[in-house]
Amino acid sequence: MAEQVEPLKDKQMVNPEGESILPRIHGVVIRRALPIEDKRGEIVEMYRPSWGLHPDPLVYIYQISLRVGAVKGWVAHKRQEDRIFMSRGVVRWALYDDRHDSPTHKLLNTLTFSERNRTLLIIPRGVYHAVQNIGEVEAFFINMPSRAYDHADPDKYRLPVKNALIPFAFDDGPGW
After folding, report:
1. What is the pTM of this model?
2. Could you tell me how far CA 128 lies from the centroid of its own chain?
3. 154-173 residues labelled b (16+ CB within 10 A) or e (exposed)
4. Homologous superfamily assigned to 60-158
């Protein structure tokens, strides 16, 4: 005879305005980007210094593509913040705060963004991050890091996708 299992009641995850109430890693910024549409198409602003989200100027911009099902990460930086704009596809980001002096040390955040939910995501230095394409088309996002890539001395510190430090697995299945 099968063991009786009690159903789990959902916990509140968003407020009535649809904003997450879950704890967020200290210094992570999420800014929704609403498109301005007309009969020809749309325009979406990715980043404006006047928004006051980050003090450093734009110095370097590049685009990343991610094939369906692929995972990139884990990576952290010591000298830069990433300022990432989600452009196309559906991706799931995982962020892990490995900063010993952070009030959210060891906190894990998972975030899902798509072209229907375009977002500017600012990831502070010292926060490990990885991304998975969970959609059905190749995903594209733009990074505008706070410092230009140094080919002679890259500011990238990598961990394997499966590691003992970060309590997260991208192969966690389709859900309920």
Report:
1. 0.88
2. 10
3. eeeeebebeeeebebebeee
4. Jelly Rolls (2.60.120.10)
